[in-house]
Specification:
There is one protein chain. A 6-stranded parallel β-sheet has the order 3-2-1-11-12-7, with helices on both faces. It has a 4-stranded antiparallel β-sheet with strand order 5-4-6-8. It is an alpha/beta fold and 504 residues long. The protein folds into 2 domains: 302 residues, 3-Layer(aba) Sandwich (Rossmann fold), CATH 3.40.50; 143 residues, Orthogonal Bundle (Isoleucyl-tRNA Synthetase, Domain 1), CATH 1.10.730. It has 19 helices and 15 strands. The structure holds 5'-O-[(L-methionyl)-sulphamoyl]adenosine. The site of 5'-O-[(L-methionyl)-sulphamoyl]adenosine has 21 residues, from strand 1, helix 1, helix 7 and strand 11.
Length: 504
């Protein structure tokens, strides 16, 4: 079975921030989970380098668009491994192979009768690289997102005949109720479509920083069509000499932020229909990370720096925090103080302490040998169906509820320690068998949750599973009782407490 997951490709007009890290982390959690299921996974991320947003930023800095793109693409590329993201390829839309594939697909769209020449007139936001309808603009002529004054643009463009695809899009939505999730985003996209689709500019005449239109040299492709196609073109050249589209197209999941819904849920499927290509199976739309009530964005200057957090606490802590504290699919506030609270109470205490205590007790009372006895029938039912439920949720990109399912078991194991007080059993005559059962059940419970947590906190999960002598990550093995460890080894604290002063 194959699984193909993508992030949006990030604009290189500024350096990466936590909002970008967020989607990459979420996609990585899904990619890792599907690898644990034994599937063939392809995980793509990259940078969106053409168009006005980049050209304008470069102009302001007095460098060429390519210089700015080269510099910032490197920073995005470097972010992925820091987040422990296991992307299989990093696409840059300035790659010549991408450009050629864009030309090829869009020529097909034209040959199929979906392109015509026309005059564009309207409000345009150079920062969004998006044309705004009268209904969208605010305060007279301002961009609803950037709040900057919009330009009134008028130019001859080739148009993509989006209007011709309205019915087919509506039908696709009707036949695929899980095409877009969460449901509220499905409804939003569908009502946009039902509201009536206008043709959209496919090319720009005034720009030069883009993929040239092969049938008219005075034009480049409008950056959004060039960018959207990355999900497809990457597969044509990621592995030299191989065409991965056969195995991985259509994509299983495109993860996107809610600000780019229209492009992905309307323009993108329409473009694929016009090109005669299969549509992606699912789009999952996440919300915004907010700071002080505003969308975190470089242009608003309110960013929490992912590099700093990783430096201090490690990538696992950041990955966990973002998917735990902000419900994936909704907006949520983030702050250094909330991060610190989660780290202390859940990673250091709930999980880190559970791991240390369990291992220390097996070492102290049984010399590290996990008793091979029947597991506690009181605990076992609490793990029934867990693996399936987590798998089902993660398979639907419901990453926060999946994590909550796992965490309920982490808490259950902590209660189990308190209920059974192994340190008391160790002192009581004739309770050896009880202590054996408790230690074995606890170690096996810890192993089970850790296999499931691996996708979220891969580094620490691996360290812990090694200490448990149970490195197998297969999801089928994440069943309570499937692979009781035999011998444990000592372990340093997984999530060491940070001195309070460092936190502020
Ligand atoms: N280049 C386009 C995407 C093209 S995809 C074919 C773009 N780039 S972006 O860099 O501006 O944003 C990329 C993604 O990062 C978007 O999905 C966006 O929602 C996400 N985020 C940027 N800031 C964010 C937050 N503050 N919170 C959550 N995600 C955010 O759009």
């Amino acid at each position: 079975m194959s699984f193909y997951v993508t992030t949006p490709i990030y604009y290189v007009n500024a350096a990466p921030h936590l909002g970008h890290a967020y989607t990459t982390i979420a996609a990585d959690v899904m990619a890792r989970h599907h690898r644990q299921l034994g599937e063939d996974v392809f995980f793509l991320t990259g940078t969106d380098e053409h168009g006005e947003p980049v050209a304008l930023a470069a102009e302001a800095l007095g460098v060429t668009p390519r210089e700015l793109a080269d510099k910032n693409a490197e920073r995005f590329k470097a972010l992925a491994p820091l987040l422990d993201a296991t992307n299989d390829f990093f696409i840059r839309t300035s790659d010549p192979e991408h450009g050629r594939a864009v030309q090829e697909v869009l020529t097909r769209v034209k040959d199929n009768g979906f392109v015509e020449l026309g005059m564009y007139e309207g409000w345009y936001c150079p920062r969004c690289a998006d044309f705004k309808s009268e209904g969208e603009i605010v305060d007279g002529n301002r961009c609803p997102i950037h709040l900057i004054e919009l330009d009134w643009e008028q130019e001859e463009n080739y148009f993509f005949k989006l209007s011709a695809l309205q019915e087919r899009l509506e039908r696709h939505y009707a036949e695929h109720p899980d095409f877009v999730a969460p449901g509220s985003r499905y409804n939003e996209a569908l009502s946009f479509i039902r509201g009536g689709l206008q043709d959209v500019s496919l090319t720009r005449g005034k720009l030069t920083w883009g993929v040239p239109v092969p049938w008219d040299e005075g034009h480049v492709f409008y950056v959004w069509f060039d960018a959207l196609l990355n999900y497809y073109t990457a597969l044509t050249y990621a592995r030299p000499g191989e065409d991965l589209t056969e195995e991985f197209w259509p994509a299983s999941y495109h993860l996107i932020g809610k600000d780019i819904l229209k492009f992905h849920a309307v323009f993108w499927p329409a473009l694929l229909m016009a090109a005669g290509l299969p549509l992606p199976e699912h789009l999952y739309v996440h919300g915004y990370l907010l700071m002080d009530g505003h969308k975190m964005s470089k242009s608003l200057g309110n960013v929490l720096d992912p590099f700093e957090i990783i430096d201090k606490y490690g990538s696992d802590a950041l990955r966990f925090y973002l998917l735990r504290d902000v419900s994936f699919g909704q907006d949520g506030s983030v702050s250094a103080a909330d991060f610190e609270k989660r780290y202390e109470s859940e990673l250091a205490n709930d999980f880190g302490n559970l791991a240390s205590r369990t291992i220390k007790m097996v070492l102290r009372y049984r010399d590290g040998a996990v008793p091979q006895v029947e597991l506690d029938p009181v605990l076992a039912p609490d793990f029934d169906g867990l693996c399936e439920r987590v798998g089902d949720l993660m398979g639907r990109a419901e990453l926060t509820p999946a994590l909550e399912e796992i965490w309920q078991r982490v808490r259950r194991l902590n209660r189990y320690v308190e209920e059974n007080a192994p340190w008391k059993l160790a002192k009581e005559e004739g309770r050896e068998a009880d202590l054996d059962r408790v230690l074995a059940s606890l170690t096996e419970g810890l192993r089970t949750v850790t296999v499931l947590l691996h996708a979220y906190i891969p580094q620490r999960a691996e360290v812990l599973l090694d200490a448990l002598g149970a490195p197998d990550l297969t999801i089928a093995n994440a069943r309570f009782g499937a692979a009781v460890p035999t011998q444990v080894q000592d372990l340093d604290p997984l999530f060491p407490k940070q001195p309070a002063a460092e936190v502020a």
